[in-house]
Amino acid sequence: MSITLKDLSERYCVCDGKKFRLKDFEADDTWKLESKDEAAKLLEHSLDKLAELQGRLYAQNEWALLLIFQAMDAAGKDGTIKHVMSGVNPQGCEVFSFKAPSAEELDHDFLWRTMKNLPERGRIGIFNRSYYEETLVVRVHKEFLTKQKLPEKLVTKNIWRERFEDISSVERYMGRNGIIVRKFFLNVSREEQKERFMKRLDEPKKNWKFSAADIRERQCWPQYMEAYEDTIRHTATEQAPWYVVPADHKWFTRLVVASVIVDTLESLKLKFPDVAPEVRKEFAAARAALKNEK
Ligand code: ATP
Ligand code: MG
C-alpha cells in the first residue's frame, strides 16, 4: 500500500487534545518510508500541488491560511519553512518571527503583536514562533511573566488556563472569519538536538547558528516537554489542530508539513473565480482590439 499525502497529514494530527500524550509520538518516526530518496517523489508531488493550490487561494481571495511553527531549538523550523514554501509565489505568503518581546510589545496585551500580522484573505501567513510562547517559554521561565507588567491581582494560579482559553477563543474567531489555522510542533528528540548543536559548533558555516542560550534552554527540557504537552492538550481542536511532526529526520519533517498544507488547502475546494457573463461578453471585443493593434 502506498502512502498518500492525506495519510501523512492525518497520522500526526491532534484535533482533540483531551487524551493527548507526547509519549505516544516518536521523534524519529518515518512511518513506512525508509529513506530520503523514497520520500523525494512524494515531496516533489506535494510541492507541485501546493504551488497550484496557492494560486487558487490567491485568486479566490476568500480564505487565508495561518501556519504556526513551534519547537525546541535546532528542531528545524527555519529549514522546514524554507523548503516547504520554496515553490510558492512570494507575493501570496508572508513569514513573521516572534522573538523575546520588545519594550513596546510588553506595553500591550500578549496577543497584540501577533494579531497585527494575521494573513489577509488569499494569503498564507507563517508564524515562526507565536503567541504559544506565552504558555511555553513564559511558563518555564516565570520571570518573563513579571516583565509583562500585568496588574498583580490578575496574575493568579489560573493564568495558564486563562491563556489557553483566550488562545482557543481567538483561534475560533479566526476560523469564523475565514482564517484557517494549522499548528506544527516539530518534535525533535533531546539526543538529536545534541547532535545538531555539536554540528553547529564543529562546522564553521554553521557556527553563526550557535547560541549559548540554547544550551541553557536545553537544561529545561523536561519542563518544556510538560509545557508543550499541556498546551497541546488544551488548544488542539477540530478547527485549529496541532500536528506533532517527527523532527529527527529533516526530510520526513518537510514531507509531513507539506502534506498537511496540501490536505488543508484541498479541503477548501478552492476555485478560480468565475467571470461574470457581462464581462465575458467584453472578451470578444478585447480579443479583436488586441489583434488589430498596429
Ligand atoms: P532559531 O530557532 O533559529 O534559533 P529562534 O526562533 O530560536 O531561532 P532566537 O533569536 O534564538 O530565535 O530567539 C527567540 C527566543 O525568543 C526564543 O528563546 C523564544 O523562546 C523567545 N521568545 C519568543 N516569544 C517570547 C515571549 N513572548 N516571551 C519571552 N520570550 C520569548
Ligand atoms: Mg534560538
Describe this structure in words.
There is one protein chain. The protein is α/β, with parallel strands linked by helices and 294 residues long. It has a single domain, classed as 3-Layer(aba) Sandwich (Rossmann fold), CATH 3.40.50.300. 49% of the residues lie in helices and 12% in strands. It is built from 13 helices and 6 strands. The protein has helices spanning 5-11, 36-60, 77-84, 103-106, 112-115, 137-140, 143-147, 159-176, 190-202, 212-219, 221-235, 250-267, 277-291; strands spanning 13-14, 64-71, 93-97, 124-128, 179-187, 242-246. Strands 1-6-5-2-4-3 form a 6-stranded mixed beta sheet, sandwiched between helices. Helix 2 (36-60) runs parallel beside helix 12 (250-267) and helix 3 crosses helix 12 (250-267). The protein starts with a helix and ends with a helix. Adenosine-5'-triphosphate binds next to helix 3 and helix 6.
